C-alpha cells in the first residue's frame, strides 16, 4: 500500500508541476512585473517546488538523508534527462550547435557548487554557523555573484499569448502549488516508510526514487525544447534548474535546526554527490570540445553518463 500511495503521489506531483509551469508562464506573460527576472524566479520556483516541498517534509519527519538525497538526486537526474535526449538525437550533435559562452559559466558554477557539497559530505564535521553548514553560505555567495555577473539572457522566440486571464492564471497557479505541496509531502512521508519497511537505504530512496519523481517535469521541458529544436533552452533549463536546486538545499539546511544537515547525512550521499560532479564534468566536456564528425565519437559523453547513472543506482541500492 505504501508503494501504491507513493506512486500515486509521484504521478500527481508530475502533472501538478506541469500545470505550475503552464500557469507560471501565463503570469509572466500577463503581469506588469518588470521583466525576465521575476518571470525566471517564478518559473524556476514553480519547477523546483516539488523538490523543496519533499525535502522540507523530510526535515519535518527528521529524515536528513531523504532531504539531502532528493536535492542531489534531482540534479543528477536532470543531467541524465539531458544526456538521454542528446544520445537519442546524437545525429543532430546538439552540444556542437549551442553557444559555449552562454552555458559554460553556469556549468562551471554547478561544478564548483557540487564540489563544495561533496567536500562537506566527505569532511563529516564541517564548520557551521547558526546550525547551518559554512558551505551553504558559500553556495549563496557564489550564486549571487554568478547571477549578477551573468550576461543578459538569450532572447526567446515570441510565444502565442495565452487566452487565460491573469486572475485565472494566478488562481490556477496557487491551486497547482497547493496540490504539489500535499503530494510532495506524501512522497517524503511514504518514501520514509518504504525505506523503513524494506530496509532500503534512505539515501537511495531520496536520491533515485523520489528525485526521479520530482524531476520528471524537467523532462517535459527538455522534450518540448528538443521538439522545436531549441537546444540552448534545453541545456540552459537543466543547468539553471540545478543551480536553483542547490539554493533550495540551503533552505533545507536552515529548516533543519539540529545542526548542519550535511554533517548528519549518511556517507552514502557522497556517491550521489560525486556522481553529480562527474556528470557535470562530462557535460562541460561535451560543451567545450571541438566539433566531432563521427556520430559514435560524439555520443560517448552521453553514453558514459547514462551508464554511470545506472551503475551508481545499483551501488546505492
UniProtKB/TrEMBL annotation:
<keyword id="KW-1133">Transmembrane helix</keyword>
<feature type="transmembrane region" description="Helical">
    <location>
        <begin position="233"/>
        <end position="256"/>
    </location>
</feature>
<feature type="transmembrane region" description="Helical">
    <location>
        <begin position="170"/>
        <end position="190"/>
    </location>
</feature>
<feature type="transmembrane region" description="Helical">
    <location>
        <begin position="6"/>
        <end position="24"/>
    </location>
</feature>
<dbReference type="Pfam" id="PF01699">
    <property type="entry name" value="Na_Ca_ex"/>
</dbReference>
<dbReference type="InterPro" id="IPR044880">
    <property type="entry name" value="NCX_ion-bd_dom_sf"/>
</dbReference>
<dbReference type="InterPro" id="IPR004837">
    <property type="entry name" value="NaCa_Exmemb"/>
</dbReference>
<feature type="transmembrane region" description="Helical">
    <location>
        <begin position="295"/>
        <end position="316"/>
    </location>
</feature>
<feature type="transmembrane region" description="Helical">
    <location>
        <begin position="129"/>
        <end position="149"/>
    </location>
</feature>
<feature type="domain" description="Sodium/calcium exchanger membrane region">
    <location>
        <begin position="173"/>
        <end position="315"/>
    </location>
</feature>
<protein>
    <submittedName>
        <fullName>Cation:H+ antiporter</fullName>
    </submittedName>
</protein>
<feature type="transmembrane region" description="Helical">
    <location>
        <begin position="268"/>
        <end position="288"/>
    </location>
</feature>
<keyword id="KW-0812">Transmembrane</keyword>
<keyword id="KW-0472">Membrane</keyword>
<feature type="domain" description="Sodium/calcium exchanger membrane region">
    <location>
        <begin position="3"/>
        <end position="145"/>
    </location>
</feature>
<feature type="transmembrane region" description="Helical">
    <location>
        <begin position="67"/>
        <end position="89"/>
    </location>
</feature>
<feature type="transmembrane region" description="Helical">
    <location>
        <begin position="202"/>
        <end position="226"/>
    </location>
</feature>
<feature type="transmembrane region" description="Helical">
    <location>
        <begin position="36"/>
        <end position="61"/>
    </location>
</feature>
<dbReference type="InterPro" id="IPR004481">
    <property type="entry name" value="K/Na/Ca-exchanger"/>
</dbReference>
<feature type="transmembrane region" description="Helical">
    <location>
        <begin position="101"/>
        <end position="123"/>
    </location>
</feature>
Amino acid at each position: 500500500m505504501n508503494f501504491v500511495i507513493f506512486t500515486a503521489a509521484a504521478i500527481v506531483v508530475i502533472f501538478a508541476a506541469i500545470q505550475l509551469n503552464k500557469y507560471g508562464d501565463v503570469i509572466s506573460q500577463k503581469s506588469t512585473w518588470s521583466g525576465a527576472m521575476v518571470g525566471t524566479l517564478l518559473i524556476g520556483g514553480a519547477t523546483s517546488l516539488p523538490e523543496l516541498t519533499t525535502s522540507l517534509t523530510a526535515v519535518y519527519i527528521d529524515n536528513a538523508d531523504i532531504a539531502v538525497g532528493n536535492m542531489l538526486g534531482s540534479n543528477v537526474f536532470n543531467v541524465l534527462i539531458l544526456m538521454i535526449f542528446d544520445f537519442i538525437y546524437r545525429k543532430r550533435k546538439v552540444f556542437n550547435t549551442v553557444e559555449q559562452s552562454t552555458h559554460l559559466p553556469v556549468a562551471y558554477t554547478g561544478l564548483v557548487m557540487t564540489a563544495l557539497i561533496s567536500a562537506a559530505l566527505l569532511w563529516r564535521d564541517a564548520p557551521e554557523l547558526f546550525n547551518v553548514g559554512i558551505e551553504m553560505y558559500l553556495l549563496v555567495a557564489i550564486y549571487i555573484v554568478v547571477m549578477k555577473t551573468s550576461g543578459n539572457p538569450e532572447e526567446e522566440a515570441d510565444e502565442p499569448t495565452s487566452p487565460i486571464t491573469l486572475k485565472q492564471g494566478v488562481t490556477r497557479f496557487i491551486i497547482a502549488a497547493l496540490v504539489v505541496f500535499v503530494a510532495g509531502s506524501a512522497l517524503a512521508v511514504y518514501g520514509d516508510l518504504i525505506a523503513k519497511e524494506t530496509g532500503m537505504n534512505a539515501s537511495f530512496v531520496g536520491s533515485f526514487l523520489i528525485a526521479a519523481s520530482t524531476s520528471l517535469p524537467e523532462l517535459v521541458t527538455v522534450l518540448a525544447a528538443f521538439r522545436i529544436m531549441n537546444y540552448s533552452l534545453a541545456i540552459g533549463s537543466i543547468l539553471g534548474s540545478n543551480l536553483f536546486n542547490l539554493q533550495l538545499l540551503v533552505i533545507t539546511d536552515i529548516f533543519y535546526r539540529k545542526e548542519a544537515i550535511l554533517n548528519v547525512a549518511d556517507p552514502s550521499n557522497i556517491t550521489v554527490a560525486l556522481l553529480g560532479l562527474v556528470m557535470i564534468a562530462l557535460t562541460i566536456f561535451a560543451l567545450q570540445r571541438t566539433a566531432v564528425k563521427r556520430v559514435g565519437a560524439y555520443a560517448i559523453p552521453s553514453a558514459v553518463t547514462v551508464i554511470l547513472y545506472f551503475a551508481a543506482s545499483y551501488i546505492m541500492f
